[in-house]
Specification:
The complex is a heterodimer of chains A (115) and B (112). Chain A has 115 residues and is an all-beta fold. Chain A contains no helices and 11 strands. Chain A is globular. Chain B has no helices and 11 strands. In chain B, the strands form 2 sheets. In chain B, strands 2, 4, 5, 6, 9, 10 and 11 form a 7-stranded mixed beta sheet that branches. A 4-stranded antiparallel beta sheet of chain B has the order 1-3-8-7, with no helix packed on it. Classes of the chains: A mainly beta (115), B mainly beta (112).
Chain lengths: 115, 112
């Protein structure tokens, strides 16, 4: 059974940093693109960043480019999102997902940016 | 960015009756590899999104056959043949052809 478990969310002040993790199991992690998607409270979904199987390619939505970094450790079956210079508008549930543009999703981790 | 426009945004439905959601993209979703990456997701209250349909019309494993997808180019439709109580939630179309991938605004399906 595919499992994606996000962690690392919490309350952070504007301008602060946070690192999210996603632990994957139940599939061959190194064979799949991985994704981060977020959802602001009561709002729709936004694809934020994606990373190729070997980590050699990453793509970001403009709103996070230069502030967020997606990475992965295939030896640890883990996906990461380093978030710097956080803003109030980054407040959201953050999901990791995978397989063919979103076949599997985690349960999400909540990030709140507030003073 | 490709804009995905769904209609209606709210859809009250009687149990056992059909429902249909439209999704239009601001440009063609035909990828250079020949595929059309238009997916449909369901998000039940308090849950993560769940993919129902991939590449326009392919039902994902475990998805009831009352859900079907159709369309081409820039116009797509999700149909539920007979709405059940468990179908309540928000439905999103999503294009995975042009980066950044984008979702529609969501259609809230509720029981009358």
């Amino acid at each position: 059974e595919v499992q994606l478990v996000e962690s690392g969310g919490g309350l952070v002040q504007p301008g602060g940093s946070l690192r999210l993790s996603c632990a994957a199991s139940g599939f061959t992690f190194s064979n799949f693109w991985m994704y981060w998607v977020r959802q602001a409270p009561g709002k729709g979904l936004e694809w934020m960043a994606i990373i190729k199987q070997d980590g050699s390619e990453q793509y970001y939505v403009d709103s996070v480019k230069g502030r967020f970094t997606i990475s992965r450790d295939n030896a640890k079956n883990s996906l990461y999102l380093q978030m710097n210079s956080l803003r109030a508008e980054d407040t959201a549930m953050y999901y990791c997902a995978t397989d063919s543009r979103g076949r599997f999703w985690g349960q999400g981790t909540l990030v709140t940016v507030s003073s | 960015d490709v804009v995905m426009t769904q209609s209606p945004l709210s859809l009250p439905v009687t149990l056992g009756q059909p429902a249909s959601i439209s999704c239009r993209s601001s440009q063609s979703l035909v990828h250079s590899d020949g595929n059309t990456y238009l997916n449909w997701f369901q998000q039940r209250p308090g849950q993560s999104p769940r993919r129902l349909i991939n590449k326009v019309s392919n039902r994902d494993s475990g998805v009831p056959d009352r859900f079907s997808g159709s369309g081409s180019g820039t116009d797509f439709t999700l149909k539920i043949s007979r709405v059940e109580a468990e179908d309540v939630g928000v439905y999103y179309c999503m294009q995975g052809t042009h980066w950044p991938w984008t979702f529609g605004q969501g259609t809230k399906v509720e029981i009358k």
